[in-house]
Amino acid sequence: MAEFIAALTEPPVTVPTKLAALLDNTILLRQSYSEDIAEFSANAADEDSSNRHAFFLGILKKVRVVLSPLITGPPAAIKEKANSTSVSEILNVFEHLELEEPSAAFEQAPDAPTAPAPIYKAERPNDVEEDFFMLHLLLHDLARLRTEVSRAWEGYKQGGHDLIAASITTNTAVDLARSMIEDSKSAFAKHGGAIRMLQVYYAAQCLEQGSSEAQKQRPTDDMNFAMFSLADAVFWPAFLLLDGFASMHKINPHPEMKPGFYGTYNPSSDRARKSSREKFLEDKILLLEVLTEFYFYCHMTKASPPPVEDEFICLLRNMFETKEVTLPLVFAATLFLDIHHILRDKADDGFTRLTDAAHFVTVDIEEEIKFHEDVEMATWPKQNDHTMQHFVETVKFWVHQDQQRKVGLQLKRTYPPKPWHLYRKHSWSCGLWRYWVLMQFHEFGIVFANAWGSIMSCAHLYNAVSGGKTQDMMWKDLDVVTGLQDPKTFFVGEAPTTPDECLKRFALAMGASATNLAKSTRTRRGLVHSKKGPKGLKELGATMQAFKSRICDANGPKNIRAEDVQKILDNSSWDYELDDNDNAQQVFKDVGEAPRRSRAKEMSVSKCVGLVRDLLHAEVIEISFDYFRLHRQCWRLLGAVKDHVREDLIRIYGPDYMQRESELPFIVGYVLMASSQSQELGELLKPKLPGVQVTSRVQEGARYVLEGLIASGAGGLIVEQILPRALNMQIDFEFEI
Question: CA dihedral in degrees (595, 596, 601, 604; nearest 10)?
């Protein structure tokens, strides 16, 4: 075919430089495999496989020679194989590949004819080199996932990413790694499994560098430290440490490491200045000492697993049972070490973030239960309080109480752990626990707010009295919720402006049907209720919600694939702009009616994971907002409005217009109807007494009460004080004139 193309003269064919570069790199890659893996060919079948690859390699080289005169532009530089091959060259040989948009002619071309009936041939056995090529591509993908995880923790350290975003990114990377490895399981099994192939692969790479895996500079060295950069690129240090622990565990059923046995880990030291031997020793001290605590944690929770468990612990559970090391576990352990390399002496800040969130949530829920304990609400049975209290007790048990140390002392362990030792060493796990706490808090808060109706009711009052139109009338806490939820959630369309429209929209929010707003000459008696019931706030954080069953449900799905990550992005309520490297330059909320813009191009799974990380960070505020505290603000405000305009309301509606405290949200309806031409609102409200005239006095009184709440600073308590102090979360306001 190449000779046919070269012979064409009318018109002559030109070969793009990129195609030439692809041919060069493919030839180089396959040639390196022929040389490296040939060292380990042990039988005639392997030798026959090598011969077939040599023949194919010859074809590729001949194609390159034939097409050389047709190449346009300057010739692409060919990477010569040398002993100085860098780790980036080993793992990034396909960086020249680019995805190009199809031309207009291609898109408008007629459909291809129906394919002829397939011709079946016997499947040729997979070649050993093809299987090792598959391993190489797998390691390349894992390296790119590792890069995105490192960016997440670098961002967390610098304040650019929340702990939750970094932890879920890490967990997702391990999930993806496990799925990728599982997909190749049958091919790897023919060569002893993924771990055995990793050993052969690493040995081959050492030989290519003119060294060997067994070569050591000192007799006591754990590995060939001259190859440390290469070894780290293929996760070799983590494998050696895990394999050593597993071997020891086969002999000692309850392994316990004496702290300081190999030295003392000093996180305040500069890792960049350490030698390869010193870096490995640091990892050895860190990982082997914490593996002991992981073992006792898994042993302690075997009968009663915790509600949250990260993928590292899940994979360690399997190792403690089987005494076997798996490639997904090696990858997870590498990420665990990377996190410590990045955070250093800030590693235990994750535990602080977790305990801050746990304290904030438990105190808030208990305060709410006490706040409404004497109020009977038909839409909120007392059983719901018991459910929330059980959640509070669960958080206290797993986060506030140091179960690891408590059990360690009971077992009279030789070396009991320091207080909250495992949490302080495992920021990744702390982020998932924080996610679980805040997701449950968010779910409870939304259900509670919808059951009591105070927030929805106050949003209509705030709109009716022109709240938010001037800086001195900004109820910041409610403004944030309105922005997060989208105003249409409250007003069933655009916010109303006239008294009559305000009343009608309030009725819709309280459960009236939209048919009440239809123009008709028929006289209606009573209010038509919506089959859907009252309007309610929505659970937010679409990207966060996508991980809920995976993290919060012990029996939820664990494996995640590339198409699942893409689906999470497609279902997100956020949009984004990407730079030339497929990194998010800007993330913004899609709240318009226009359809979301189409994706410019498909991204690699690692870039998708990086984008999910950015969306998760953007959504942390959505699941962290304190709806319970806002409810208490609203409830107190409604009570104050009721007391302030009490005489006017009795004059307009009679003394029995409200009989129970649970009816407080409807006080807004009475305020709005006083300014409206309407005399009644079906069964939703008591009708006006005969002869009562329309008056704005009641609404002005309600505005006066609201002004007092805002002037006191209570209207910004959550966003200006609670969230910054409790969750280290800042919200900036811009007022548009």
Answer: -140
pLDDT tens digits for range 621-658:
999 999 999 999 999 999 999 999 999 999 999 999 99
The pTM of the full predicted model, rounded to 2 decimals, is 0.82
* 719, 654 contact by CB (below 8 A): no
- Short-list 471, 491, 512, 524, CA closest to 716: 471
pLDDT at residue 366 greater than cutoff 80: yes
Collapsed DSSP state (helix, strand, coil) of residue 684? coil
Q: Are 557 and 639 contacting, i.e. CB atoms less than 8 angstroms apart?
A: no
Nearest CA among 378, 14, 328 for reference residue 171: 328
Region 299-320: mean pLDDT is 94
Q: Which two tokens stand for residue 79?
A: 């990477």
pLDDT, the chain, mean? 86
E strand or H helix at 589:
strand 584-589
Output DSSP code: residue 686: P
The token pair at 406 is 């408590």
pLDDT tens profile 656-682: 999 899 999 999 999 999 999 999 888
C-alpha to C-alpha distances, 285 to 230, 245, 266, 297, 701, nearest whole angstrom: 21, 12, 10, 19, 68
Mean pLDDT lowest for which of 433-437, 503-507, 511-515, 546-550? 511-515
How far apart are alpha carbons 161 and 146 in whole angstroms?
Answer: 16
CB-facing half-sphere around the CA of 73: CA atoms within 13 A: 9
Between CA 709 and CA 712, with CA 710 as vertex, the angle to 5 degrees is: 70
DSSP for 21-47, please give it. HHHHHHHHHHHHHHHHHGGG--SHHHH
Give the Cβ contact number of residue 567 at 10 Å.
13
Q: Give SS3 for 285.
A: helix
Q: How far apart are CA 127 and CA 306, in angstroms?
A: 45
Among residues 191, 228, 196, 222, the alpha carbon closest in space to that of 209 is found at 228
* Residue tagged 């022929």 (tokens): 34
